[in-house]
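A.,

Following up on our hallway conversation. Structure tokens first:
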């Protein structure tokens, strides 16, 4: 089923999403990859302030290529989500509601998603140039020294994703194997 959502991603919106839904996201989301997740995680472990408010937000596992002249952002395809798995339960416990990436997630992440009423979306790998057209604004807001792995605030319009794992632990990857 096609669904259109605007951020923030509230509990009510998450409850309405089921594995297999095609979703078009508009509003503000954030990008962060491995190195940024490590810094956020370490800061949280120390009780330090982190550069984004996780509450009801979505993180896109993205390290875009440089923007060409006249573009907001370069190719914006997802990276493999499992590299963030060791950091994700803590982020979910602190309000993160959605993640966009590609590939399977660990059992610990899926359990934490269920506990925290969160959802995992997949974006189509290899379609980065097409996905970049849905990003209307991109601003580095933290960890500029990380280059493409810096945290970006993104304004998106109808970013196409698929609910791969919903808040009830229904998992399209497992369904495909069956």
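Then the amino acids I'd put at each of the 178 positions:
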């Amino acid at each position: 089923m096609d669904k259109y959502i605007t951020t923030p991603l509230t509990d009510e919106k998450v409850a309405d999403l089921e594995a297999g839904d095609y979703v078009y996201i508009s509003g503000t989301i954030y990008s962060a990859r491995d190195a940024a997740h490590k810094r956020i995680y370490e800061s949280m472990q120390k009780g330090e302030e982190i550069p984004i408010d996780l509450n009801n937000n979505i993180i896109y596992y993205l390290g875009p290529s440089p923007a060409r002249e006249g573009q907001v952002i370069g190719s914006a395809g997802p990276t493999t989500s499992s590299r963030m798995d060791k950091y994700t339960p803590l982020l979910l416990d602190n309000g993160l509601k959605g993640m966009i990436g590609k590939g399977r997630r660990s059992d610990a992440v899926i359990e934490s998603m269920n506990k925290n009423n969160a959802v995992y979306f997949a974006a189509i790998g290899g379609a980065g140039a097409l996905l970049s057209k849905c990003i209307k604004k991109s601003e580095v807001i933290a960890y500029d020294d990380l280059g493409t792995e810096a945290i970006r605030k993104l304004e998106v319009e109808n970013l196409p994703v698929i609910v791969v794992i919903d808040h009830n632990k229904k998992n399209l990857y497992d369904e495909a194997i069956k």
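The two ends are 21 Å apart (CA to CA). Curious whether your intuition agrees with the design.

B.
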